[in-house]
Amino acid sequence: MEIYHVIELINVVKKFNEKPVLKGVTFIVTKNSITGFIGPNGAGKTTTIKILSGLLRKDGGIVRVLGEDPWDNPRVKERVSVIFTKLPYPPNDSVEEYLNDLNSIYHGDLKSLIKEFNLTEHLKKKISQLSSGQAQKIQLIAALIKNPELIIADEPTANLDPKARIEFYDLVKKLNKEYDVTFFISSHILSELEKVITHVVFINDGIVTAQGEINEVESVFNSEEIILLVKDKEKALEVLKKYNPVSEGAYIKIKGKLREIVDILDDNGIEILNVRKTSLDDVFRKLSGENNE
Ligand SMILES: Nc1ncnc2c1ncn2[C@@H]1O[C@H](COP(=O)(O)OP(=O)(O)OP(=O)(O)O)[C@@H](O)[C@H]1O
């Protein structure tokens, strides 16, 4: 399969009232990836997404979405669906009316979508009667009517409870796999995204601080320790010698694969009282300049 960049930004600048909000944003999104766009409040995620969606004009740099500048470009809009936290459609419409309206524009295969995603039971419901999770799933499925190559989602799970988030991301995975849709999803919640994304772009204060495949980015930070509290610290230090463990007060700091380390301790009958592994959240904090111990 041909691999190219579905999104490409080079040194993109955006100012509001002379104040730079994007200060030279550069990143790529690979075809067929599920890319997380991660950053704290005010980092510039929504601004970037509006530029990518052709809703906002950049002040400088290069933006390519499916190879073209998205600003004022109906060809790009045809091939990209954008979804937001809040549902943009009229709350008094039924699901059926909403989907039919969309379908009258794009002439997708609505019948198959309704069948495949079991929407029949929801069709007569008003949008306002749906739970946030149902509404967000319908928004995602509705995005497919266009048969898009790319779905851009700005904080799509911000209103959802953890269960609905998981369901939403399961659907994202399915669409990515079965419909070959590339996803670009912004969030400041990492715990759920971590399970679904293949790639990640970190943004902080209008600058991209890291990007790449999720494994690569994680491994860059694998120099960060697993922190262990065990019953027999001296014995643990001994059996974990090949990992060069460091004793720090009651704790052991160690670099390596958590599973392996836990297995070794287990095999040696050493009880683990507490263990903490660096997660993407820690990576994020580090990249955002937060919590710089
Ligand atoms: N239309 C506007 N006029 C002036 N300033 C704006 C405008 N839109 C955004 N900003 C400012 O730009 C900065 C980045 O905002 P943006 O919404 O892109 O951040 P974000 O990463 O999406 O944040 P959040 O996670 O809170 O949604 C913020 O400081 C915001 O106040």
From TrEMBL:
Annotated keywords:
ATP-binding, Nucleotide-binding, Transport
Output the SMART domains linked to this UniProt entry.
AAA
Instruction: Give every ABC transporter domain span.
Output: 7-230
Q: Can you name one GO molecular function term for this protein?
A: ATP hydrolysis activity
Query: Keyword Nucleotide-binding, does the record have it?
Result: yes
Q: Which InterPro entries match?
A: AAA+_ATPase, ABC_transporter-like_ATP-bd, ABC_transporter-like_CS, ABC_transporter_ATP-binding, P-loop_NTPase
**Could you say which protein family the record assigns here?**
Belongs to the ABC transporter superfamily.
| Name of the protein described by the UniProt record | ABC transporter ATP-binding protein
Which organism is the protein's source? Sulfurisphaera javensis
Lineage of the native species?
Archaea, Thermoproteota, Thermoprotei, Sulfolobales, Sulfolobaceae
